[in-house]
Design brief:
Layout (H helix, E strand, L loop, with lengths): L11 E5 L6 H7 L5 E6 L3 H11 L3 E8 L5 H14 L3 E6 L1 H14 L3 E5 L10 E6 L2 E6 L7 E5 H4 L4 H19 L6 H23 L4 H20 L4 H13 L3 H16 L4 H11 L4 H10 L17 H10 L10 H13 L4
Parallel strand pairs: 1-8, 2-3, 2-4, 4-5, 5-8
Antiparallel strand pairs: 6-7
Helix pairs in contact: 3-4, 6-7, 6-8, 6-10, 7-8, 7-11, 9-10, 10-12, 10-14, 11-12, 13-14
Bound molecules: nicotinamide-adenine-dinucleotide.
Nicotinamide-adenine-dinucleotide binds next to helix 4, strand 6, helix 5, helix 6 and helix 10.
């Protein structure tokens, strides 16, 4: 066994079906009694349900969360926090809503109870990305790590199938980059393999039967496992490219991860043979990059940057941005090879 250092992150995790009904008890356990519930506009009914379950412990809802945590939205939400004298933030939704909860925690130190309804994994990380004047900056600080995560499998059954598939691919990406991270450790590697396996098993079942409880449970467990990997160790080329494409060209988050992942894996394959064999095994395929491409393609997910809104003329700029600031990756970052990677991803070529 190689020597390692592992900083485990503190958080209370409640996992199951109909766990949402424990929300009031969880607020009480934190010693709080004024919860403000956050959601996107699309999930306002789910937020109202949480608020009703809290009863006299709810100070209301803020339904304005949007992707990439714009500072303007955070400022609007902070006004409500002050006006209502909220003493706890409760987020129900995906990474966008949880991002807003984290931004409020960063500004106020209020505790967070988060109820994830996608597989993005933000709930398990001390990472926050915020957007101001069109520029997204990311930081790591324990101030934004949610205190309590309530995973309720029932809530994920309404997640539309196309978002389910791309969100699951987004989660798998965290686990793969954790497996070859330079600061990985045996616990995180074990979790990563379990997470990939659970999600790969769940995707085909949910694609045909979105309400299947066992598959939805597997996928949500996978999301937690993969999110924990993202929160624990450093990421490399895949996340860097997705950050560049999302931030500079406004490409959608989970779809971008889905398209880039097989190509990022192919890029790193020669430098991570043993890890890729483990990924392939967890996916139940013989080649990791091809297996990931097929997993997306066979379940209706996008496979090209072209189809998710990128212009061919942006490839050169994307290469430039991605190569501008040096970062660690198992295979050195070479501009020509990155250009090939992005061209293949742009046209949706099977690796
Ligand atoms: P999202 O939160 O934007 O959700 C996508 C859409 O699905 C939204 O319209 C939402 O309302 C809807 N939705 C969510 N759950 C639903 C459900 N169960 N039923 C019906 N509709 C549902 O998307 P996401 O991919 O979860 O999050 C993306 C954002 O999260 C990005 O801004 C990304 O940068 C951030 N993120 C951050 C981290 C981190 O560690 N900081 C990790 C992953 C993602």
């Amino acid at each position: 066994m190689k020597p390692f250092v592992y900083n485990a992150l503190p958080s209370r995790v409640i996992f199951g079906s109909n766990t949402l009904y424990q929300i009031k008890d969880e607020l009480r356990l934190l010693g709080k009694n004024r919860g403000l519930v956050l959601s996107t506009a699309g999930q306002h009914k789910a937020a109202s349900q949480v608020s009703n379950l809290l009863g006299e412990f709810s100070v209301g809802c803020f339904n304005g969360a949007v992707m990439h945590t714009p500072i303007t939205v955070t400022n609007d939400a902070l006004k409500i926090v002050m006006e209502t004298k909220a003493d706890c933030i409760i987020a129900i939704g995906g990474g966008s809503t949880i991002g807003l909860a984290k931004a409020i925690a960063l500004n106020t130190n209020l505790p967070q109870i988060v109820i994830p309804t996608t597989y993005a994994g933000s709930e398990a990380t001390p990472i926050i990305g915020q957007t101001e004047n069109g520029v997204k900056t990311t930081q790591r600080t324990l101030k934004v790590l949610p205190e309590v995560i309530i995973y309720d499998v029932e809530l994920t059954k309404t997640l539309p199938v196309p978002i389910t598939i791309t969100s699951a691919m987004n989660a798998i990406a965290h686990a793969i980059e954790a497996l070859y991270s330079k600061d990985t450790n045996p616990f995180i590697s074990m979790l990563a393999e379990q997470g990939i396996e659970a999600l790969a098993r769940a995707i085909p079942i949910i694609y045909h039967s979105p309400l299947d409880s066992t598959a939805r449970s597997d996928a949500l467990f996978g999301a937690w496992a993969c999110g924990t990997c993202l929160g624990a160790v450093g990421m490399s080329i895949h996340h860097k490219l997705c950050h560049t494409l999302g931030g500079s060209f406004s490409l959608p988050h989970a779809e971008t991860h889905t398209v880039i992942l097989p190509h990022a894996v192919a890029y790193n394959e020669s430098a991570t043979t043993e890890v890729m064999a483990r990924v392939a095994k967890a996916l139940g395929v013989s080649n990791a990059a091809q297996g990931l491409y097929d997993l997306a393609a066979q379940h209706g997910a996008p496979t090209s940057l072209k189809e998710i809104g990128m212009n061919a003329s942006d490839i050169n700029l994307a290469v430039e941005i991605a190569c501008a600031s040096p970062y660690w990756n198992p295979r050195p970052i070479e501009a020509n090879a990155i250009h090939n990677l992005l061209s293949n991803a742009f046209y949706g070529k099977r690796p």
